[in-house]
Amino acid sequence: MTRLAVGCLLLAVTGCASSGLNRSRSRFYRGSFEEAAETFDERPVRNRDHVLMLMERGTAWQAAGEHQRAIEDWLETADLIRALDYIRLSETASSLIINDATQTYSGRPYERALLHAFTAKSFFMLEKWHSAAVEARLIADGLEDLNGFPDDPYTRYVAATAFERIRDFNGSRIEYTKADELTHHIRIDPTTGMITAGTNAPPNQTAPPRELILFSGIGRAPMFNMGPPIQNARWGSDPYVEIRHGNRVLGRSYTLMTTTSLARDTERRIAAIQAARTVTRIIIKESIASAVEENNTLLGGILRIFLYATEAPDTRSWQTLPNWLQVARVPIPENAAELQLNFKSSGGTTLKSMTIDPTSLPHTDGKYIYQARAW
Prior knowledge:
The protein is of the alpha+beta class.
């Protein structure tokens, strides 16, 4: 039993090693995307945070416009998650004795869904429409049975867009419909994907011949089990992107979901699961400590304190995600060679602006796709 106690101690020490991600995240949010990605490269190839590192390095590559490198990281991430799911049973046994942080991180359900959504968006930018549709099918399958975890209309909208690009209109209609059902402040047309404020807009609107589909992200994702980052305060409660052509406003983006909401609802679901597991942990830990104490009272007392001190939830999370996950779908004038994107706070103050040339964007069937981000 003493050997088991020592093994538990060693396992906990290994699992509690610092992830060292903060330096890369800091560089990412300074706008040094390639430097952030290269900093991730400095980390050990295999450890309990390897999946998390690949998730965040992919975000840095995508922000740098290195979409193929982002895709490679995220496809590797998906492969690792699938492999980890097969070996999770052995790690689960150890985590019952110590805590969830001893497990190799493999992403929460909403992070796994967003992993495929972000991979699809990078495929969009490379005009690899069928590859994006593969990610869409993974999204649809993954969101089929969530077991009480939150659904995400943004991820479903990305999937619908991917299906629409390969003219799988049945698939796109299903996902647009589900996205619409999950949003209560906007109307998403199931046939065209057009977005309008309020829920009383008529269905089956006629899509314009040329459209900009903008996937925008604003702010920073929260640390799991904590409140929103203070940097999000300047955006207010409902920021948006205004799209202009000259002096004319073509439309704006709408929030389909926030990572704050996804994390909060996920935390509630995990709390319910953990409540049942905590009883099992206490029984196992008390049995170990009591057995050790019979042979060595001092060691038993120390072990008991240590085991209960490590009874903590896993607070790791994909922190380079945006908070407000948004989509804009607006008509583009025939002669438009330059569009202005104004990132605005809830109060209408422009906090960031950029211009894009729609004629240079990836497109098919008159649908031009772009992604942009601000924090």
